[in-house]
Design goal:
Length: 199
């Protein structure tokens, strides 16, 4: 066998970079609609006549929110199908279909045991950001105390207020009488900023 057994056309195709084919929107949307309707039918007391317009409006709201991004659309549709699976009766009877896309995890899981988990999570995140703010405040207090002791306000000023850069050079000069505090001159070393200021 002197010749390769792979046909020329196939050889050529194998050398091409793979083409990612997106599924057609129509098909994706039909699948999502079918899934949302299926879950609603299973979780609510509604019949098909009631479920169909609700599911259709919901799917349209998801489509509008996704703004043409297929992955966003699929993620949102999956999230809502999941939420309806957990909490369909409550959600469908509490909200118009178009409002469901704007609910957060806590609202989506309201009345279910999952809500407690999301509430605890939100509470912990809140406590965590408060802790960071508190630490920030303490650092500022220390800076203020150091400034009082050293006699110039900028000993710990490590950020340029112009560009936020941290490469700052400084120099101290006696500008007033001999017993006055020194004045600190700062220069931002960011070549695109070069801001100077007095401390
Ligand atoms: Zn700067």
């Amino acid at each position: 066998m002197g010749k390769s057994s792979i046909p020329k056309g196939l050889q050529k195709a194998l050398l091409q970079p793979p083409v990612v084919v997106q599924p057609p929107w129509g098909q994706v949307r039909r699948n999502a609609l079918r899934e949302l309707a299926r879950v609603l039918l299973a979780q609510t007391q509604w019949d098909t006549l009631h479920v169909r317009p609700y599911a259709t409006q919901l799917e349209q709201a998801v489509f509008i929110q996704a703004q043409g991004q297929l992955l966003d659309y699929q993620a949102k549709a999956a999230q809502l199908a999941w939420a309806l699976e957990q909490n369909g009766a409550h959600l469908a009877e509490t909200y118009p279909a178009g409002a469901l896309t704007d609910l957060d995890d806590q609202a989506l899981t309201a009345t279910t045991p999952l809500q407690r988990i999301f509430t605890e999570h939100a509470f912990k995140m809140h406590a965590f950001s408060n802790m960071i703010l508190d630490t920030d405040r303490k650092v500022h207090d220390v800076e203020a105390q150091v400034a009082k002791v050293t006699g110039h306000s900028g000993a710990l000023q490590t950020r340029c207020t112009g560009c936020g850069g941290t490469k700052i050079s400084w120099d101290q000069k006696q500008t007033k009488g001999g017993d006055e505090a020194m004045t600190t001159f700062y220069k931002c070393e960011n070549p695109r900023c070069r801001r100077t200021w007095k401390g």
